[in-house]
Amino acid sequence: MPMTLRLTDDEAEALRRRADLERRSMQDVARQAIREYVEQYSRAELLDEVLDQEIPRYTEALRRLGE
Questions:
Q1: Beta-carbon contacts of residue 12 (< 8 Å; ≥ 6 apart)
Q2: Which string of b and e fits 12-47 if b means at least 16 CB within 10 Å?
Q3: pLDDT digits (tens, 9 = 90+) for 23-63
Q4: Domain boundaries in the chain?
Q5: What backbone phi and psi angles, to 5 degrees, belong to 23?
Q6: CA-CA distance, 45 to 42, in Å (whole number)?
Q7: Helix (H) and strand (E) counts for the chain?
Q8: What's the Cα-to-Cα distance from 46 to each of 2, 20, 34, 38, 50, rounded to whole Å?
Q9: pTM beyond cutoff 0.90
Q10: Are 17 and 29 in contact (CB under 8 A)?
């Protein structure tokens, strides 16, 4: 799916420098950054869901451990 990404001059220059350092295209670097961002936040959301479901089951035990 085609997409246009508008960057500030500073963002574009930083991306260009990173791509040059890695000897990769700017597109490859940007796509990897997006994948990593989505993966990181997807994991965080999953962890939050699990904790929201599981912590109430152990509330009493956690309270006792805190004493």
A1: 26
A2: eeebeeebeeeeeebeebbeeeeeeeeeeeeeeeee
A3: 999 999 999 999 999 888 888 788 888 888 888 888 888 88
A4: 9-66
A5: 55, 45
A6: 5
A7: 3, 0
A8: 29, 35, 18, 12, 6
A9: no
A10: no
